[in-house]
Specification:
mainly alpha
């Protein structure tokens, strides 16, 4: 029962929509109403307010990290802590506060990686930055980092249950970016810092 309570609490923490909260604090338009329609840091950046985007990124990352850290501090093992991170990630993707809609989960996943093992987070963050810098496509960077996460887990942790959690998050990230992948192939995907104009259906 204590593990179930842990997962429920982690899910609720992950459900906090920092993109929406931050936008309201800064007096900005709801991020679900422009750009990709995604309540995440990249879309908030399309508002032109870098501070709001940075705060969204920090908040979304911290809730993933906090779920893993809190589980460890409460005496749970590494496997349960990783599952708490997964619950927070799912909370972000299927937020109870947004009628079970939410962001794609990239920043929250990065926070989970940092909680599981900082080396994995750094490895994936470097890949994200390299791809984002060279292509200007946040989605391409996210897809590359997602694929790299479980591979980095195997490299740094070996075949442990936590790697299964990383693989599950990677699979969810790939699924959440399926529309972006289609737009990348068609050459219609919006770039980082691009127009605030609605790109299409919320991804």
């Amino acid at each position: 029962m204590s593990t179930l309570l842990l997962l429920a609490a982690a899910y609720l923490i992950g459900s906090i929509p920092f993109a929406v909260v931050t936008s309201r604090l800064f007096g900005l338009q709801d991020p679900r109403e422009y750009g990709s329609g995604n309540p995440g840091a990249t879309n908030v950046l399309r508002s032109g307010n870098k501070a709001a985007a940075a705060l969204t990124l920090i908040g979304d990352s911290l809730k993933g990290w906090f779920a893993v850290w809190a589980a460890t501090r409460l005496g749970f093992g590494a496997s349960e802590a990783a599952l708490a991170g997964l619950a927070a990630f799912l909370g972000h993707v299927f937020s109870v506060f947004l009628r079970f809609n939410g962001g794609k989960g990239v920043a929250t996943a990065l926070g989970v990686l940092a909680g599981v093992d900082a080396r994995i987070a750094i490895f994936c963050a470097v890949i994200w930055l390299m791809i984002a810098y060279t292509t200007r496509y946040s989605s391409a960077a996210a897809l590359s980092a997602a694929v790299a996460a479980p591979l980095a887990g195997l490299l740094f942790l070996g075949p442990k249950p936590a790697v299964g959690v990383l693989a599950a998050m990677a699979a969810m990230l790939l699924w959440r970016h399926k529309d972006n992948l289609a737009r990348l192939r068609a050459g219609t995907e919006g770039k980082i810092g691009g127009s605030k104009k609605k790109d299409g259906p919320a991804a």
